[in-house]
Input
Amino acid sequence: MLIVKKFGGSSVANKERIYNVARRCVEEYKNGNQVVVVLSAMGDTTDDLLDLAATISAKPSKRELDMLMSTGEQISVSLCAMAIQELGVAAISLNAFQVAMHTSRDYGNARLKKIDTERIKAELDAKKIVLVTGFQGINRYDDVTTLGRGGSDTTAVALAAALHADACEIYTDVDGVYTCDPRIVPEAQKLDEITYDDMLDLATLGAQVLHNRSVGMAKKYGVELVVRSSLSDAPGTVVREVLKVEKRMISGVAVDKSPARISLIGLHDAPGIAFRVFNVLAAEGISVDIILQSVGRDGTKDISFTVDRKDLDASIKVLEENLSKLTAERIECEENVAKVSVVGAGMMTNPGVASKMFEALYNEGINIKMISTSEVRITVLVDQDNADAAARAVHNAFVAQD
Ligand code: ASP
Ligand code: MG
Output
């Protein structure tokens, strides 16, 4: 079997952890398998590198930031290759340039386009364990790019697809995907399996366990993922197209404490106003999430929406500059908000999910600021101070009774 194993930053945070990873890989190899290992940077290395850049420049060039950040993963693959060699097995580390992992041009958030597999296959044929840097690629200028924070998962899935691997295992410091973050909801349960679609929604809505782009890619190429702990032998959670056993109404509850809410008050109730508002934001590269428009009255209306908090200042600035063009009387914003979402394809066939969710929030005395839904998801915006209590109430209304 050809197995791709990905280990996150906490799994390679120090010497002991690196040896732990090395031993797991050697064991797999000695069972007669070909092993390709994708690693993240050790512990908080990527954050430390960003802090280091900030000491030099307030607005460093994106190209140089990628050049800098990519070193983190080179440290972990080379050290881990040394550890495997110490354990008596041949190993080689390769960076994105040596493999040739081709990405789009954009620094900081590049997309993997094509992976050359010749070098990896040759090294596997030479009976080596192959370690590949996660999170990075090269673009058409032969410059180093990175795939966005948490992007090593995507590297692993892309490699598994390109190599037609028999398994793709994502190792982390928790033993699988939970119905909610156990640090917020102690009653959270580990899922044995989850569909790509539900996992994608949970990852996008704030669950930290997988990079959302990696889940989309896994679905596209039919790569079955196993999410499991690097520190135990617990079986983990399988992410696949169709569930074999578990049929839950709700797959999980996600909490995202990063949004901010902006409201434009007193807009003209006329065609083209919403277009102008969101066009101004799009031109600044700002993504907007939940959008709510009030019913028009006396010729005016309000539009509220959420943005990532890091985009709040830029959003306010561009909206203020365009206030009269947008016909707004004033702008209001709120920084301390959070999104709480329930996700599950089971919702489609079970009426009353929304009412049950809102009842659970009401019982806790939690006010809902905004609501957004799809067929398989309900998201509410609440005060950030209420986020954990909201998640617990909603989770326990659904999951505990499943
Ligand atoms: N080291 C990178 C980060 O911290 C990539 C990853 O961990 O997946 O974002
Ligand atoms: Mg990470």
Observations:
- The CA atoms of residues 62 and 107 lie 6 Å apart.
- The mean pLDDT is 95.
- Residues 62-86 form the longest helix (25 residues).
- The first strand starts at residue 2 and ends at 7.
